[in-house]
Design a protein that fits this description.
There is one protein chain. The N terminus is likely disordered. This protein has a domain of about 160 residues: Roll (Mannose-Binding Protein A, Chain A), CATH 3.10.100. Helices cover about 20% and strands about 25% of the residues. The chain has about 240 residues and is an alpha+beta fold. It has a 5-stranded antiparallel β-sheet.
Length: about 240
């Protein structure tokens, strides 16, 4: 994999007025001009383009199955998923509206995709404890890192939505987010994925420990597109 240019920020974009999360040794990546100019435009929703990582014929999105020797789509952890997208002036998808969420659910259903990473992140790093508006964290502390915006409280259906996207069951049978893995091995479930009926719950949001490996749906990132456009005086 080509070396990615790093941002000063570590691990994930923080919620407003917080500082960086604990260092895990991996940095957020800046976009690269040549990739942004030819970013994948697999489909369009609104004014954003999207693509599914396993559909991109790029060495960085493929790996060789050691059992068969056949190339297959690569699975990566949450931050690696974001960085794969960010090279193209995109980011892991964030579903800020019911229509966008339904579009992602429909795509995964039609393709029978088991799971994907999203840009969803829990604000559980330095600076979050001091934010009274984020507590309790499992209810008010979730945000979309691709746009740096807070999610609706997890305890109720998002305002204006016809359904609750968070699952009503997980590893221990209770509603999501439940931070279940912390009870197993002290690893916080700080990242958000969409799981396809893994808990016999349909297509739903789940909190997941960030080290797990999954494919990702990438979405246009306005800040990254603007950054490259202004830096290189190009139209994207």
């Amino acid at each position: 994999m080509r070396v990615l240019v790093a941002l000063v920020l570590l691990v994930a974009a923080a919620a407003p007025q917080t500082t960086k999360p604990q260092n895990t040794g991996t940095l957020l990546a800046l976009p690269e001009l040549e990739y942004c100019l030819e970013r994948p435009k697999q489909w369009q929703f609104g004014n954003h383009f999207y693509f599914f990582s396993w559909d991109l014929n790029d060495p960085d999105f493929l790996e060789v199955d050691p059992q068969t020797g056949v190339k297959k789509g690569v699975k990566v952890n949450w931050l690696e998923a974001r960085n794969l997208c960010r090279r193209y002036c995109m980011d892991a998808v964030g579903m800020e509206s019911e229509d966008e969420n339904s579009m992602i659910f429909d795509f995964m259903t039609k393709r029978n995709i088991t799971y994907i990473w999203t840009s969803g992140r829990l604000c559980d790093f330095t600076g979050c404890k001091e934010r009274e508006d984020l507590h309790p964290l499992n209810v008010y502390g979730w945000f979309w890192s691709n746009t740096n915006t807070k999610m609706a409280p997890t305890s109720s259906t998002p305002p204006g939505w016809a359904y609750q996207p968070w699952s009503d069951k997980g590893h221990f049978g209770g509603p999501q987010p439940d931070n279940a893995e912390f009870q197993i091995n002290n690893t916080t479930e700080s990242c958000m994925a969409v799981l396809n009926n893994i808990y016999k719950d349909g297509m739903k949001w789940h909190d997941i420990a960030c080290y797990h490996k999954k494919p990702v749906i990438c979405e246009d990132s306005a800040p990254l597109l603007n950054y490259i456009a202004q830096k290189h005086n190009v139209t994207l």
